[in-house]
Design a protein that fits this description.
Keywords: Membrane, Transmembrane, Transmembrane helix. The chain is an alpha+beta fold and 159 residues long. Helices cover 36% and strands 33% of the residues. The chain contains two helices and six strands. Helix 1 runs antiparallel to helix 2. The protein binds zinc ion (ZN).
């Protein structure tokens, strides 16, 4: 997990080359970028949008920065979801493995649905909690596209 700072440095990557090698049993993707440094200061609160122009191709891009406080809140939400999901999975496995409860049909169905929903949601919430840094690189409309990339970002943040 990256530490949250108000002043941040962004490395913008402009893709100059990509190549996929596919030999049926072996697959490799290679991509090369020009990298450019940008420095920003997060807003004191909330979220702020910054316009950004790629020095290599001149394409307009947008950077959305969340304040440190907002990013911590988002991380907390992901962590709460991950802990709740883990607790549901652990409790369901423990109860199902060691104790046979004569649960009524509706309660059984609710427990089963909560368990099945927790299985995919929990690892995704843990992953999002770990990588959330409150920084999004997109095109000016807010959509993610190929061609530009924020180097060092664990999130697939392209524009
Ligand atoms: Zn570019």
């Amino acid at each position: 997990m990256q530490p949250l700072r108000r002043k941040i440095a962004i490395k913008l990557g402009h893709q100059i080359h990509e190549h996929t090698l596919d030999l049926f049993v072996y697959w490799r993707y290679t991509s090369h970028y020009y990298l450019f440094d940008f420095h920003f200061t997060r807003p004191a609160r909330g979220q702020r949008r910054f316009d950004l122009r790629c020095p290599a191709c001149g394409k307009d891009l947008m950077l959305r920065l969340d304040s440190v406080e907002r990013t911590k809140q988002i991380r907390k939400r992901y962590l709460t979801t991950a802990l709740t999901g883990s607790a549901v999975v652990a409790a369901t496995v423990a109860l199902g493995g060691f104790v046979h409860l004569p649960l009524p049909g509706t309660v059984e169905a609710v427990v089963l649905i909560a368990f099945l929903l927790s299985l995919p949601v929990t690892p995704i919430a843990w992953w999002l909690w770990r990588i959330e840094d409150g920084i999004r690189l997109t095109d000016p409309t807010g959509k993610r596209r190929k061609g530009h990339w924020r180097a060092g970002s664990p999130r697939l943040s392209g524009a």
